[in-house]
From TrEMBL:
<dbReference type="InterPro" id="IPR001279">
    <property type="entry name" value="Metallo-B-lactamas"/>
</dbReference>
<dbReference type="GO" id="GO:0006749">
    <property type="term" value="P:glutathione metabolic process"/>
</dbReference>
<dbReference type="Pfam" id="PF00753">
    <property type="entry name" value="Lactamase_B"/>
</dbReference>
<protein>
    <submittedName>
        <fullName>MBL fold metallo-hydrolase</fullName>
    </submittedName>
</protein>
<dbReference type="GO" id="GO:0046872">
    <property type="term" value="F:metal ion binding"/>
</dbReference>
<dbReference type="GO" id="GO:0070813">
    <property type="term" value="P:hydrogen sulfide metabolic process"/>
</dbReference>
<dbReference type="InterPro" id="IPR036866">
    <property type="entry name" value="RibonucZ/Hydroxyglut_hydro"/>
</dbReference>
<dbReference type="InterPro" id="IPR051682">
    <property type="entry name" value="Mito_Persulfide_Diox"/>
</dbReference>
<dbReference type="GO" id="GO:0050313">
    <property type="term" value="F:sulfur dioxygenase activity"/>
</dbReference>
<keyword id="KW-0378">Hydrolase</keyword>
<dbReference type="GO" id="GO:0016787">
    <property type="term" value="F:hydrolase activity"/>
</dbReference>
<keyword id="KW-0479">Metal-binding</keyword>
<dbReference type="InterPro" id="IPR044528">
    <property type="entry name" value="POD-like_MBL-fold"/>
</dbReference>
Length: 299
């Protein structure tokens, strides 16, 4: 098995191509569609790099795997699938829960499906995928979102936002449906794997200005994770994670990303004027005074 990493500097996102050296069968994990919010412009530089690597190495792309509905970047899955129509797009089966929540948040059309049909496959823990000689197992790791999964391929796991590098800790848990208690239990599932299991993370924010890193091990995580080392109690982690999340700002591309990603990376359909529009709700998570309202202390 070979693993090729790709780093998007704009969103600090790591994507991966994992492939069988002998059969040339491959999967892509968490591809990125480039997006600039000031001009609301998309382009395909990040996805093109993945596509070029697959083609240049004569790989046979079988699956495009999403670890969750990302809140910090738009998925490039549709761009990759256009280049490789035979590849199936897959995500954890609990994506339907996230679709239901955000259909309401964005007031999406009544016919917007919340049964996951936008994806080719909804994955559970009991049905591994076979890619050449590689077996890909799905491990449910909710907490950051209800639908988060980790993919295990031989001695490697791809954790999305469940675990970051040890000096970063874990993903946040304050999005709708997120749960620090669930994330604690998810990490314990991962910590039950052998210590030499390789861990490939979904983001690296390079704390302290250190060099980019994306690979660690379960043993290193258990010994050195600054937020959830082995032995930290559930109560301690919940208190730390919830207090930290309360002080975090929303991700820069939260609303743009989620409404695209719950729809399997599809941009909104063009309106009557042939322009696509993203919906940006106001004061939906942490309401403040809306225009025209009067604060109690002004009465």
């Amino acid at each position: 098995m070979e693993i090729k990493s790709f780093y998007d500097t704009r969103t600090s996102t790591l994507s991966y191509v994992v492939y069988d050296v002998d059969t040339r069968d491959a999967v892509v994990i968490d591809p990125v569609l480039d997006y600039e919010p000031k001009s609301s412009k998309t382009w395909t530089e990040s996805a093109d790099a993945l596509i070029a690597f697959v083609k240049d190495n004569d790989l046979k792309l079988q699956y495009i795997l999403e670890t969750h509905a990302h809140a910090d970047h738009l998925s490039g899955s549709q761009i990759v699938q256009q280049a490789f129509p035979q590849a199936k797009l897959a995500v954890g089966e609990r994506i339907t829960e996230v679709q239901k929540v955000f259909k309401n948040v964005f007031d999406l059309p009544a016919d917007f499906p919340t049964d996951g049909r936008q994806f080719d496959l909804l994955l559970n823990e009991d049905e591994p995928l076979q890619v050449g000689t590689l077996t890909i197992e799905t491990i449910f790791t909710p907490g950051h979102t209800p639908a988060c999964v980790t993919y295990k391929v031989e001695d490697a796991i791809f954790t999305g936002d469940a675990l970051f590098m040890p000096d970063m800790g874990t993903g946040r848990c304050d999005f709708p449906g997120g749960s620090s208690a669930d994330l604690y239990e998810s990490v314990q599932k991962l910590y039950a794997l052998p210590d030499d299991t390789r861990v490939f993370v979904g983001h690296d924010y390079q704390p302290g200005g250190r060099e980019l890193a994306w690979e660690t091990t379960i043993g290193e995580q258990k010994a050195n994770n600054i937020q959830i080392p082995a032995g930290r109690s559930k109560e301690e982690f919940i208190k730390f994670r919830d207090e930290r999340d309360a002080g975090l700002e929303a991700p820069r591309l939260l609303f743009q990303s989620v409404q695209v990603n719950v729809d399997a990376g599809h941009l909104p359909q063009p309106s009557g004027n042939e322009v696509r529009y993203l919906r940006i709700p106001v004061n939906v998570f942490k309401p403040s005074r809306d225009e025209g309202e009067t604060e109690l202390n002004e009465v």
